[in-house]
Structures are given as C-alpha cells and as structure tokens.
Task: inverse folding
C-alpha cells in the first residue's frame, strides 16, 4: 500500500483492485466526498493509491443500535471513542440509543448528540429519540419536536426497556406516521422477565441457579406489536431479535404484508447461553444469549431476509459495572469493532450469505429503516464515498486490549474470527486506515 | 486431596514386589518381641495398675491390641486400649498431600493420671511421637507416658527415646522399613527395603 | 480439589474422605480441649455478603477449632450501590494475606467468580439459588450416620426447588455417593429445564408426593417461603401443605426405616408438621450439630496441605 498522507483533508484516493461487493474487481476514485469513477482507472497525480488487492469493498456500514453512553457515562464510552470504534469496525453511520443520562427525549438532547458526533467526525452519529419521557413508559416524549429538530430524528426507542403498555405502544406507532418515523421495540414483557432475571431461562439457568427469562417474554411482545402495526398501519422495528419463536412470528407477519422490520446482533448469531457456565458477566446481555437452536434460526432468518439487518447493540460498560456477581452486573457487550468479522465468519464463510446480502443487511436496509438517505447507497459513480474495505481472509484472535472503545467488556476476546476491516471511508475521507483512526 | 491412601505408609499402597529387600523380623519374631515388651511394661510399671495403651494409627493400633492381649496372658488383667490419631498434630501437614484423619478412641476411664503407653510400629525421626504427645496434651494429663515401638531404626531428629523396643535396626537413611501385620496386611513380617523414605519420616 | 465451589468438585473418594475425617472431627466437640493444631498459622476470612448467623458461626467455630485465625467480614448490602465492585471488595480482603475465603453471597456464581481472581482457597458457603456444598456434605454425613451407606438408597427432595441452593448441591452429592434422587415439587417450583437435566444426569422428578413417599429411605424437606405466593408459585399455604407438606398422615406412609431431614430453617406447619420435625426418625437436630464437624473437615482438606493447595 502506498499513500502520501492519508490524513490530509481533501485527499483523493484511488482504491485499486477491490472486489466490489463480491461482484468483481474494479478501481474506485474517491474525491470531494463522492465516488467519482468506477472501473479500470489510472491514478491522477496527487491521489493516494490504495492497493486493495484481495479486499472486498462494501458500502459503509450502518448500525441501527449503538450505545455511546455520552452524555452521562463518559467513563464507559464517549461519542468520540465510540465513533472511533465504529470507524474501526467499518461503520459510517451509527444510531445512538436514547438511554443516556439525561435521556435523549427532547429536541435539544438529540441535537446535542448530533453536534457532538459531527465534531468528532469519524462517523455520522444519528440520535435515536426516546419513545417515552425518561424511558419511564408512561408518557410520550416529544417525538414530533425531535423529528423536526436539526437532528431529524426518525427512529424512536426506549431500548433497554420495553414499551410494554399496549395502549402507549399503539399511540406511539400511530403518532410517528406523521413524519415517517419508526418505533424500534425492545421486545420484553416485563412481567415475564422480572426482578433478578439475568439470563436465558432453560436447563442451564436451572443448573446454575440463575434467575432467567424465557424466549416467550420476547415473543409475546413481538406478536403483539406486529398486530399493532397491522392495526395502525405503521412501521415497527424489532430490536435484537433473539429467539426462533420471534422469527416465526416475523416470518408470518411479513407474509401478511405487515410493515415490520427486525435486526439481529452479531452475538446472537454466534454466542450461546452455554458460555454462562463460568458466570462471566462479559456474557451477560439483554436479550440474553440463547441456546444453539435459536442461534441457528436467527442465522437462517438473516439469510432469507426475515431479519432485515445486523445491528450491534454495542453496549460498553466500565469495569466496575461488570465485575459484580453475575446477577448484579450490567447487561451488555461490545460489538462495533467485531461485527463485520462475526458476520463474515458466521454467514459468509459458511455460504449462508453473499457479500451483496451482507451489504444489504449491514448497510442498505438499516439505512432505509432509519431513513438515512446519505448512507446505504450503492458503490457507484456519483454516490457518497462511504465504504469499507475488508480483508475477508485475515484471521486472528480478538484482543480486547486493542479495542478503541473505552470499555473492555468484549465477548469476542480470545476468539478467532475471520475478516478484518482494512479501511473505512466517510464521504471520501479515510476515517480508519493502517490500524488507526484518522481524525 | 490427591492420594486417597496417603495416610497409610507407602508399603500398603505400593504393590511393589513383596519379596524385595530382606526380612529382618518374621511373624514369630514380632510375636516374641511383643511378649517381651509386655513383660517389660508390667515390670517397669510394677503391675498393670493405671495402664492405658494407645496405638498410633494405622499399624500401631493393631500392635497395641496385641500388646494388651499379651499383658492379659501374663497378668490376667484387661488393660484399657485405644487409638490416638496424630494426623492433625503433625508438623509436616503442609508439605504432604492431605491425609485423611483416623479414629481416636480413648477408653472410657480417660487418660488423666494414667500411665499411657503409646505404641507405634517404627520409631524414626521422632516427629510422630512429638505429635502424639501434643495430641495427648489436648485430651488430658497422664501421670506418665511411655513409648513402645516394634522397630527403632535410628536417625532421630528430635530428642525422643523409646522405653521399650522390639528390635533396634540400624538402617541407612535411603532405606525403608516396611512393617506388615497379620490383621492389617494379611501377612506379617518386617523388611528393610531400598528406596526413598517418602512418607516415612517417623 | 483446590476450592469447594460446587458439590460437583467432589469426586466420590474425595467426598468419602471428607465424610470420614468429619467423623473424627465430630469427636473433638466432646473433648474438653476443643482444638486441633492442623491449621495453625492459617488465616481464614468469612466473607458474608448475606446474613447467615448459623452458617457463619459454624464456619467460624470450625476454623477456630482447627487453630486457624478466623476473621468475619460482613459485606452486606449491595456493593453495586456502594460503587464498589465485587472484585474490588474481594481483592481488598485477599490483599491482607488470606489463605482461605469462605464466601456467602446472595447472587449465584459469586464464589466461582471470586475463585478466578484470588490465590486463596475459596469455599462456597451458599450462593444465591445455586449451591451450598457444605450443607449437602453435612446432610450426607448425618444421613449416613443414621442409615449407613447411601449406595442404592432413594432420597426424595421436596419443596421449593427453584429457589433452593441446597437442592442442587444435594442432588449432585447424593448421586456421587450412589443414591437415587427424586425431586418432588409442584411444576411452578421445579428448577427451569429440569426435564432435560433429569434425563441427562439420571434422576427422577414427580409432582406427586404421595406416590413417591412410600418408596423412599430419606425424605428431605426444603423450606418454602410464604413470599413465593405473590409470584404465583402456589395459591395458599394451606394448599401447599395438602399437596407437598410432610403431614401427620404422610408420616404414616413413610417407611418405618426412613429418615426425615430438613436443612432449615423450618416453616413448621407449612412444609413439615411440628410432629415430624420432632420425630425419632428426624435428623434435623443432628444436622445442626454435624455442621461444625463437616466444615472442619472441609477446611482441613482444603487448607492443611500446601501441596494440595498449589495452583
């Protein structure tokens, strides 16, 4: 690889010989934020040439589900460090969940997140607005004001909590129709996942003496919400689907033409509840890791499009919030930096998905769901130069200490994954290159 | 807790050739030695009054019972007999794999103001006897304590001396003294065997 | 065995050794000088994140009678709310040069986590709704003293199995010792996934106490907390007693030779009738007195030898 100065602003690039979304080799000229030309190109002067031989080029990834912790828990993650982790993971846009402190439940809060993201400039940080005030599940947040704000919020979610009140959920679904919004539901019936529940309820939780919650706690809400979506004619999005039962409901709902979309996390595509045997809180996550049967069903559903998108649910936590007894530790695990490698390992290597389908699940469809018009575009002349270069054959053990996230609750630590992000471009600027982010 | 039988001397747990080494006491020799020591104990004590015989597990217990039987033959008196486990009092607990404790049985009359006769198979470093004296101290206050051993093989590490010895056996440190008794082992003899003295620091 | 975190840490011969040594330790309780020097110079910390006077004092006496220095540290109250992590708390204690940590925690798995952080030997003195291995050892000890070897014996464990830490340890240990176990409870109080678990590990489950009781050698009754009613686990105490209590009528069905145990604390009149608790066939008081002996044996086996405690 040769490049004069990759960090210089206004730099133009020729990406040489990348496999374009698995469709064959081509060169890409990136200049002034757009893909200027695609084909067999000679490098003009003053253009940095990036040898992309053996690399796959994908449209910049879009994460529908990221926790950046700022404001409120800057000791676990900041918009800056989370953006860096996102860039390192091949993302060009992330949707920052609303469960910060204060909660993103006003236009002002949403604009603040947007501005902080723009200041860092490594990835487009698009705020998600809360559905209910303070995520309390009692009163709608100012959905319309958030939508009208500079942040142009379109995705609303109480993530971390379920909008469990059926009446409130119905109203939210109806209300966001006015501005083309979507409610992203954390599907979890609180009465079936009460108090100390901290893992999947099943044989292992019985043996470990850990209070769990069953898959049905998720499935009853998914079932209820697709019926509400049908009734209201609104869009509903199911966050982090984790069970085979939810997949069945989604498959039926889609067959009925109900406007439901769904996401699955990288960890639910690979990790199973068996990992809880040692009570390591790194593997404590909500929804919980499920048995292998669920994992298989999720992979199949992602492959056949029943599940639309992969979303990370990147959830950084400070050490002192994780190093508790399992039941008392915080829920959540890191995801941004390894998401693409997990999908490569689990879905592409196994032949379940093509690169085209990966681009759909990690870029096109999430951008559509979130109404992010500048993202999830094709790699074609005239399109914004948002792309990621992936080395699909690179293989290595994940080292949590090399993470750009502030936190270390990395469930992939020590695991060998295939596929390494080589470079990420946001509107033509290299945000990640040569193993480091470039601000 | 790796070795289930680590409390037993290696002889019991190592099935090495039974005929290795050389026999230094036969079954008849052991019986004769016990009879002689029974006489000596009685003579020294001027009869069987206040005697309590305590064997140190594992083989000391069988020897104690046989000593008491011999005393009964000579004197026509049943001397109280019991067992005194010293496992918890050993000074090498930390260096050895964990040993399972054996039973301590003190005759109903107790040991206060009694003449306690401790019985063990082999006297070596003297550490077992020291441990036994500590164990006794926690159980009561005997008027006197005497020591009977079947074999004294020398190499003392503590100022300990037996009152009655079945046989003095000069040995090299590298050798092992292997005692087998009828009830305990199904065969009776004392052998000197070449080999490490692991677990034999007695 | 370096730690005692689960009854599953004990192979059959190890469990039998501990029970055998416990017999010798039991005698010490009748002596004037109740002290053995085996753990002289060792320091044991009873680190209790949950109150349990009975278990704590039992471990404390056990350690002291073995001449160890025993310190009680109460870490009650959620450390989460204090901003200190479990690891912080434990490392602070361990940094004082502790040889053994006896840990009681209201959350399942805490002792397992701690064992990965510290050099000290860790004994699980009850964790959440997971295990309580020394309780299982003393139950086995008490039963064996009364009815002998557990090989081929049939033990019914009856009660709130979902929320019991005793059931898991007992199930594992009793099976290690060769007993056949039947878990008896209403479906709501069975551990989750018990069907698959029973199939894999080879034990039985039943919802019908009257069917099981005539065939058992041991009826182990577990405490049922009245608070469970609010969770919808059963409708009323009256209904629970009729279905699953060891009532006077059921005592007649229990075989003559069978024994009754209860790891306590008892809810007399709920899971066990007052008569049953005081019957000659009841081991309940023996269970209490055996606690110290069994814990002495456990501490001795784990701490006496540096060789056994090497990493």
Result:
């Amino acid at each position: 690889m040769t490049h004069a100065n990759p960090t210089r602003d206004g730099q133009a690039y020729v990406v040489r010989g990348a496999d374009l979304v698995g469709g064959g080799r081509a060169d890409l000229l990136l200049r002034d934020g757009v893909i200027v030309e695609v084909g067999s190109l000679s490098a003009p002067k003053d253009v940095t040439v990036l040898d992309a031989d053996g690399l796959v080029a994908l449209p910049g990834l879009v994460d529908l589900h990221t926790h950046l912790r700022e404001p409120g828990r800057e000791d676990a993650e900041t918009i800056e460090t989370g953006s860096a982790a996102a860039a390192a993971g091949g993302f060009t846009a992330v949707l920052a969940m609303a469960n910060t402190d204060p909660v993103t439940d006003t236009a002002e809060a949403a604009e603040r997140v947007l501005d902080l993201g723009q200041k860092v400039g490594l990835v487009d940080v698009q705020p998600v607005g809360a559905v209910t005030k303070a995520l309390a599940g009692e009163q709608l947040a100012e959905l319309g004001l958030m939508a009208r704000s500079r942040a142009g919020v379109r995705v609303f979610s109480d993530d971390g909590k379920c909008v469990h009140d059926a009446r409130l959920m119905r109203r939210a679904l109806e209300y966001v129709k006015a501005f083309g919004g979507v409610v992203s539901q954390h599907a979890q019936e609180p009465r079936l996942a009460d108090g100390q529940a901290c893992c999947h309820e099943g044989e292992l939780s019985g043996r470990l003496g850990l209070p769990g919650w069953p898959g049905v706690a998720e499935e009853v809400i998914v079932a209820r919400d697709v019926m509400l979506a049908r009734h209201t004619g609104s869009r509903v999005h199911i966050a982090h689907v984790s069970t085979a039962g939810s997949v069945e409901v989604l498959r039926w709902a889609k067959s009925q033409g109900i406007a439901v979309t769904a996401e699955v996390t990288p960890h639910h595509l690979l990790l199973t509840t068996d990992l809880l045997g040692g009570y390591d809180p790194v593997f404590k996550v909500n929804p919980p890791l499920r048995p292998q049967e669920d994992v298989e069903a999720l992979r199949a559903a992602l492959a056949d499009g029943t599940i639309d998108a992969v979303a990370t649910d990147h959830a950084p936590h400070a050490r002192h919030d994780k190093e508790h007894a399992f039941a008392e530790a915080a829920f959540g695990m890191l995801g941004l930096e390894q998401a693409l490698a997990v999908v490569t390992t689990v879905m592409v290597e196994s032949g379940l998905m093509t690169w085209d389908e990966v681009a759909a699940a990690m870029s096109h469809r999430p951008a559509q769901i979130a109404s992010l018009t500048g993202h999830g575009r094709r790699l074609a002349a005239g399109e914004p130069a948002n792309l990621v270069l992936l080395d699909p054959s690179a293989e290595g053990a994940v080292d949590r200490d090399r993470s750009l996230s502030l936190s270390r609750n990395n469930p992939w630590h020590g695991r060998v994954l295939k596929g390494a992000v080589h470079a990420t471009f946001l509107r033509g600027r290299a945000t990640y290159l040569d193993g480091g982010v470039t601000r | 807790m790796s070795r289930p039988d680590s409390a037993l001397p290696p002889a019991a747990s190592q099935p090495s050739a039974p005929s290795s080494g050389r026999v230094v006491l036969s079954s008849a020799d052991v019986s004769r030695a016990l009879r002689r020591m029974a006489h000596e104990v009685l003579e020294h004590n001027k009869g069987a009054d206040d005697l309590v015989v305590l064997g140190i597990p594992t083989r000391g217990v069988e020897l104690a019972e046989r000593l008491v039987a011999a005393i009964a033959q000579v004197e026509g008196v049943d001397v109280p007999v019991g067992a005194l486990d010293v496992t918890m009092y050993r000074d090498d607990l930390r260096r050895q794999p964990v040993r399972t404790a054996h039973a301590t049985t003190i005759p109903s009359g107790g040991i206060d103001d009694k003449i306690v006769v401790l019985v063990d198979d082999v006297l070596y470093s003297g550490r077992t006897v020291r441990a036994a004296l500590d164990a006794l101290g926690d159980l009561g206050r005997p008027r006197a304590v005497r020591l009977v051993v079947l074999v004294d093989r020398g190499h003392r590490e503590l100022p300990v001396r037996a009152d009655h010895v079945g046989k003095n056996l000069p040995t090299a440190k590298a050798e092992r003294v292997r005692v087998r008794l009828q009830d305990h082992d199904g065969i009776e003899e004392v052998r000197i065997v070449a080999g490490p003295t692991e677990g034999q620091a007695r | 065995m370096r730690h005692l975190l689960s009854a599953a840490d004990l192979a059959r011969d190890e469990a039998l050794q501990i029970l055998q040594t416990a017999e010798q330790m039991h005698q010490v309780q009748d002596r004037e000088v109740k002290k053995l020097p085996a753990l002289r110079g060792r320091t044991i910390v009873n680190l209790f994140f949950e109150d349990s006077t009975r278990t704590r004092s039992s471990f404390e006496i056990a350690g002291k009678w073995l001449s160890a220095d025993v310190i009680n540290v109460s870490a009650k109250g959620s450390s989460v709310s204090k901003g200190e992590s479990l690891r912080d708390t434990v490392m602070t204690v361990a940094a004082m040069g502790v040889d053994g940590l006896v840990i009681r925690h209201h959350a399942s798995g805490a002792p397992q986590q701690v064992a990965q952080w510290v050099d000290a030997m860790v004994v699980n003195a009850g964790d959440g709704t997971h295990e309580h291995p020394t309780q299982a050892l003393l139950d086995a000890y008490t039963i064996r003293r009364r009815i002998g070897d557990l090989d081929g014996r049939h033990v019914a464990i009856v009660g709130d199995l979902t929320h019991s830490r005793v059931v898991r340890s007992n199930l594992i240990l009793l099976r290690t010792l060769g007993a056949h176990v039947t878990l008896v409870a209403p479906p709501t109080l069975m551990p989750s996934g018990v069907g698959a678990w029973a199939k894999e590990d080879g034990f039985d489950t039943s919802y019908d106490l009257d069917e099981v009781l005539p065939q058992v050698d041991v009826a182990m009754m577990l405490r049922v907390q009245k608070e469970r009613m609010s969770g919808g686990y059963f409708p009323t105490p009256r209904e629970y007693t009729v279905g699953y209590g060891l009532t006077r009528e059921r005592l007649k069905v229990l075989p003559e030779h069978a024994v009754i145990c209860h790891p306590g604390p008892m809810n007399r009149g709920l899971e066990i009738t007052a008569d049953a608790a005081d019957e000659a066939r009841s081991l309940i008081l023996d269970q209490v007195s055996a606690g110290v002996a069994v814990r002495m044996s456990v501490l001795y086996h784990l701490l006496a030898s540096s060789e056994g405690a090497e990493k």
Observations:
- Strands of chain C lie at 43-48, 69-74, 100-105, 121-127, 154-158, 180-184, 204-206, 218-221, 259-261.
